Amino acid sequence: MHRRGVSLIMEALLLASIALAAIAALYAFASAYLSTPVYSASITSYSLVKFSGKIFLVVSVENTGSAPLRLMCLLYGDSGECYTATPSPLKLAPGVRGSFHLVCNGGDFTVGRTYRLAIFDSDVGFYLEVRVLCLGQEAPSSS
User: Fold this and answer.
1) Each residue of 67-108: pLDDT tens digit?
2) Rounded to 5 degrees, what are φ and ψ at 118?
3) 109: left (phi > 0), else alpha (psi -120 to 50), else beta?
4) How many other C-beta atoms lie within 10 A of the C-beta of residue 117?
5) Which of the two residues, 100 and 10, has the higher pLDDT score?
6) Which residues share a beta bridge with 120?
């Protein structure tokens, strides 16, 4: 007795359809992974200076991710009080640089100490923190 198997043409079609299904599934997975937005930024420079009783802060940031960010910048003083740098929020498209500025009374800051500087986007959960050294000079004491 001869057993009839699947013809070579049917076998090739079945194999090709399995391969196409695997390629389609891999493509869908890869494109979903590659199109997922990446929320990332870097602080490119910062400076905190105390002069004539005032604090001057400048922070430069760059959006290094693939999604837009709405960044806030907070500086924490000796008392734990936080100061918001402007503009607030700083809207940055991917690949774009921007900067924050802050001028305030320097009574809450001491030259030579480091202070916590936080950059964040609360909408997407992005958070970055650095310590910044306060440079400059203290106001002369009146005797």
Assistant:
1) 999 999 999 999 999 999 999 999 999 999 999 999 999 999
2) -115, 130
3) beta
4) 22
5) 100
6) 72, 127
Task: Give the residue from 107, 95, 96, 97 showing the smallest Cα distance to 58.
Answer: 97
Nearest CA among 82, 76, 83 for reference residue 131: 76
Q: Are 59 and 99 in contact (CB under 8 A)?
A: yes
Annotate 107-133 with DSSP letters as a single string.
GG--TT-EEEEEEEETTTTEEEEEEEE
- Which residue, 118, 51, 107, is CA-closest to 82? 118
Report the predicted TM-score, pTM, of the whole model to 2 decimal places: 0.73
Q: Of 50, 60, 57, 64, whose CA–CA distance to 82 is shortest? A: 57
